[in-house]
Amino acid sequence: MRIAAVLAILGILTAPHFVSAFDVTLLNFIGIYALVAIGLTLLTGVGGLVSFGQAAFVGIGAYSTAWLTTVEGQSPWLGLAFAILLTCAVAAVLGAVTLRLKGHFLSLSTLAWGLAIGFCFGNIDGLGHFTGIADIPPIRVGSLALIGSGQIYYLIWAFVIAAVCLTHNLLDSRAGRAMRALRGGNLLVESLGVDAFRVRLTLFVIAAFLSALSGWLYAHLSRYVSPSPFDVGMGIEYLMMAMVGGAASPIGGVVGAALISILKNSIQDYLPLLAKGLSGQLEIVVFSVLFIIFLQRARDGVTPFIAKRLPKAKPISPAPAPPLAQRSQPTPGAPLLQVRNAERRFKGLIAVNQLSFDVAAGEIVALIGPNGAGKSTMFNLLTGALRLTSGSIIFNGREVRSISQCRIARAGVARTFQHVKLRPQMTVLDNVLLGAYGRLSSGVLAGALRLNRAEEARVRYEALRQLERVGLAERAFDLAGNLPLGEQRLLEIARALIADPILLVLDEPAAGLRRQEKQALAELMRSLRAERLTILLVEHDMDFVMNLADRVVVMEFGAKLSEGAPAQVRDDPRVQEAYLGGVA
Ligand code: ADP
Ligand code: MG
After folding, report:
1. pLDDT in tens, 271-314
2. Counting runs of H as helices and runs of E as strands, what totals does the chain give?
3. CB of 250 within 8 A of CB of 203?
C-alpha cells in the first residue's frame, strides 16, 4: 500500500516532464475534479449522503474569486479566502436547513438547490450573466505568475495530495469514526454520545470546502468563468466520478476523476470517426451504457478492486499507554435512577403503563417479563431513544425526559441493543473505539493533522483492554460483521464499557451465548459491580438472572407485576402465573 502511494506521488511529480502539453492540461482538470470527488467520497461514500449539487459549490468558489479579483481588483489569494468563506457559509446554511431530511428527500433537495444556485450565476447582475466573467488574473506565487498549465499543475496536485492525506487521517480519528458510523441510522450513533446532525453538517461543509478549492483553481486556470460548468449536469458527473473510483475512500475520488475524464476524452476522440455529426448525442449514449455496466458489475468502484490485490500492511496491536481519565462513580447505595409513573403509548397501544421503579448506585437490577411486556421500550425511554408520553425519569439527580439521547449518553448511560447494532464494515477495534467518542476531545482539524496521537494511543490501548475483558482481543482487526451473533453482543458490551458509564443498560446480553459464554458474562458483570458500576439488564434466562441480580422488577403488559430480591420474586404467585402462561 505504502509503496503504491509513494510511486503514485512520484508519478504525479514527474509527469509534466514526460507527457505532452495537452495531457498536462488534462491532468490539471483531473486534479480540479478530483478535489470535488474526494469531498463526495466523504459525503456519499462515508456519510451516506448522496449529493447532486456539488457543482454549485464549485461555482460559488469560482465566481467568488472571479468577482473579487476582476471587479474589485484584489489578489487571487484573497479570492481563495473569500471563496472558501462564502462557500462554507452557504453550505452551513443549506445544510442546517436540509440535513434533517431523510434518504431520498435529502438527495432531491440537493438537486433543488443545485439548480437554484446554478440559476443564480446566470442571473445576478455583476456576474456577467451568461457570458460570464473574463480576464481573471493568474495566481501569483511570489513574483511568479502561474500562467502556463505546467506551472499551476504543481499547485493543483499539491492540493489534491494534501486533501487525500488529510481526509485519510481524518477518517481514522474520533471525528472520522463518527462520520463512518453515520450510515446505518442515528439510533446507534446518538446512543454513543454523538450528535449525528452536527457530524453530518461537518461532513457537508468539508465537502463544500473542497469544492470551493476546486472552483478557485478552476477560475484561475481557465481565467474565465461562465454558468455552464457549474450546473446540475456537472454535479451528476462529479457523483459518477466518486462512485466509479470507489466512494468508500478518498483516493477513489482521484481515481474516478481520472477515469471519467480520460474516458470522456477518448470518447470525444474516437466517436466522430464512427458517426460523423452525431458525436455529441452519441457521447451521452456511450457514457450511459458504460455507467449502467459499471453499476451492474463493479458497484463498489475501482479502488477497492485494486486495493484487494495489493499486499496489506499488518495491523499493529495497540501498545500500552497511560489510561484515559475516568469519571468518579456515585457512592454505592445512593439513588441513581428513579422512574416515576412512566408511560409510553404507540397510538392505541400502551407499551409502558404507569411504571415506577428505582435503581441504586452499584446494584444489578434485572427487568424481566414476557415478550412484548415493554422492557425494551422502557430502556428506550430511559436512554432517550424514545420520549415519554407522561411520567418522569430522573438519572443521577437530573430529569431526562426532555434531554436528547446523545446528551443522556454523555451523562453516563451506555447501552446495548436487543437487536445488535454494530457497524459491520468497521473492524471490531473501531467499533469499540466508537464507544469512547464522549471521552475524547480531538476535533476534525486535530484528526486531519494527526495532532491527536497521544489521545489515540491511549484510547486504542483502552479499547484493547475492553476487548480482552469480553474475550475478543484476538479478533480486534476482524470486521465486526464477520463475528457470530454471540460475539457481536460481547462486542457491544465492550463498546458500552469504554464509554466509562455510570449506568450500563443491557438488553438481553446473554441471548445467543453458549453456556460457557454466559458464565463468563455473569463473571464479568460481577467484576463490574465490584468496580461500583450500576447495571440494569433485561434477560430471559432465569438462571442467569436469579444468580446475578440484586433485585428483579417484573413487567407484564407494560405495568409492574412484582419487584424484589430474586428469591422473593420467584416465589410470587402472580409471577409464576404470568410465566406459566407465557415465556419461561
Ligand atoms: P419487550 O422488550 O418487553 O419484549 P417491547 O418494549 O419491545 O417489549 O414492546 C412492547 C410493546 O410495544 C409491544 O407490543 C410492541 O409491539 C410495541 N412496540 C414497541 N415499539 C414500538 C414502536 N416503535 N411502534 C409501535 N409499537 C411498538
Ligand atoms: Mg425487548
Report:
1. 777 766 666 667 777 777 887 888 787 788 888 888 888 888 88
2. 23, 12
3. no
**How far is residue 525's CA from residue 522's CA, in Å, rounded to a whole number?**
5
The chain-wide mean pLDDT, for the chain, equals 92
The atom of ligand 1 lying closest to the CA of 352 is 10
**Domains recognised in the chain with CATH numbers:** 22-307 (1.10.3470), 334-412+502-584 (3.40.50.300), 423-500 (no CATH)
The model's pLDDT over 553-582, given as tens digits with 9 standing for 90+, comes to: 999 999 999 999 998 988 888 888 877 654
* pTM value > 0.90: yes
User: Which ligand 1 atom lies nearest to the CA of residue 538?
Assistant: 2
Count of beta carbons in the 10 Å neighbourhood of residue 27? 22
Pick from 187, 346, 388 the residue to mutate for probing ligand 1's pocket: most ligand atoms within 8 Å of its CB: 346
CA 237 to ligand 2 centroid distance, Å: 46
pLDDT tens digit string along 220-234?
A: 999 999 999 999 989
In this structure, which ligand is nearest to the CA of 374? 1
**Could you say which ligand is closest to the alpha carbon of residue 507?**
2
Bridge pairing between strands 140-141 and 144-145:
antiparallel
Index of the ligand 1 atom closest to the CA of residue 555: 3
- According to the model, what pLDDT value does residue 584 have? 44
The three cell numbers of residue 247 are: 466512494
Enumerate residues 6+ apart whose C-beta is below 8 A from 571: none
Distant-in-sequence, close-in-space partners of 494: CB < 8 Å, separation ≥ 6: 432, 435, 463, 466, 467, 469, 470, 472
